[in-house]
Amino acid sequence: MPSSDPAGEGAVRRSLEALAIHPSKRLGQNFLVDPNVVAMIVGAIGDDAGPDVVEIGPGLGALTLPLAERARRLVAVEIDRRLAARLRDILAPRAGSVEVVEADILDFDFGAAARGERLVVVGAIPYSITALILKRLVDARSAIRAAYLVTQREVADKIQASPSRDGTALGIFVQAYADVAILRRIPRGAFFPVPDVDSCLWKLTMRETPRFMSSEESFFAVVRAIYGARRKTLRNALQRAFSPSDVDALLGRAELDPKVRGETLGFPALDRLASCAESLSLRSIDGSLGERC
Predict the structure, then answer these.
(1) Cα angle for residues 269, 272, 278 (degrees, 5° grid)
(2) Which single residue of 136, 201, 212, 213 has CA 20 to 30 Å from 40?
(3) For residues 203 and 183, what is the distance between their CA atoms, to the nearest angstrom?
(4) Domain 216-290 classified CATH 1.10.8.100?
(5) Which residues pair with 192 in a beta bridge?
(6) How far apart are CA 99 and CA 87, in angstroms?
(7) Which of 290, 99, 134, 264 is nearest to 206 (CA)?
(8) Cβ neighbours of residue 146 closer than 8 Å, sequence gap 6 or more
């Protein structure tokens, strides 16, 4: 969800009309039009805007302009060529420290963008590809120190709640490699066009080590099995990944009640299950379950 000029909805409408842009749902183009929300986001980022910053979907530049004043180096990644061209014109006086890259953020090379120091990422994320972007950021964690993201509120809440009854497999994936903190709620009226849901600003701080010690393959085989059968008992859920006899051996080794629901397990128990699966040399009956969430 790219951001916009902070002058308000009228200025945003005029800018879009001048560029012949009709906000695209496919690209997640909902532009920030509330100057107070822009100031809140910039204030929440604070000193983290000092080093090298990558902005996702700068749009009309609501966040880009204040970030450019603070960051040592700012790389703004915009997929819409018309918006990218406009930003280059506006930011021309800062060409030495600001770069506008016309690209899909899913193809952006964070490793190449990091120059001796891990990046801080900032952006309002298109709702339709939130999961893909989060996976991309986590995958690039060696080049990223932290990310300040505006997403659908429900998504952030579920990620923060993971693992639990209110969590998701995506949330466990994110929490496995990063600390999550919800910073501010953002009403839907802060955007144009107005989305159907409320949003929030939250921070992702990459961990130096994951929250599990087992292999990724084993850990996420367990997670995908459990969260793919949320209403089933732990024994029945694990049978999506392992044979029934192997599941009984696994639960015995891990000393876990087969009748509980897997979504009640925290990281230590999930990791113990995965480690026991490795010690028993168990293999998933479906190779795809070994993929990450």
Answers:
(1) 150
(2) 136
(3) 7
(4) yes
(5) 31
(6) 9
(7) 134
(8) 48, 120, 121, 203, 204, 205, 206
Cβ-based neighbours of 123, under 8 Å, separated by 6 or more: 55, 56, 57, 105, 147, 148, 149, 150
- Matching residue, tokens 């496919």: 26
Per-residue pLDDT tens over the stretch 227-246: 999 889 999 999 988 889 99
Per-domain residue ranges of the chain: 9-206, 216-290
d(CA 270, CA 265): 6
Q: Give the number of other CB atoms < 10 A from CB of residue 24.
A: 13
Q: 270 or 282: whose pLDDT is higher?
A: 270
Span 129-164, pLDDT tens digits: 999 999 999 999 999 999 999 999 999 999 999 999
Residue 168 has pLDDT above 90, yes or no: yes
283: left (phi over 0), alpha (psi -120 to 50) or beta: beta
Can you tell me the distance from the alpha carbon of 230 to that of 140, in angstroms, rounded to the nearest whole number?
29
17: Cβ–Cβ under 8 A, 6 or more apart, which residues? none
Give tens-digit pLDDT for 36-78: 999 999 999 999 888 899 999 999 999 999 999 999 999 999 9
Distance CA 30, CA 228 (A): 32
What length is written for the chain? 293
Q: Which fold has domain 9-206?
A: Rossmann fold (3.40.50)
In the predicted model, is pLDDT for residue 6 greater than 60? no
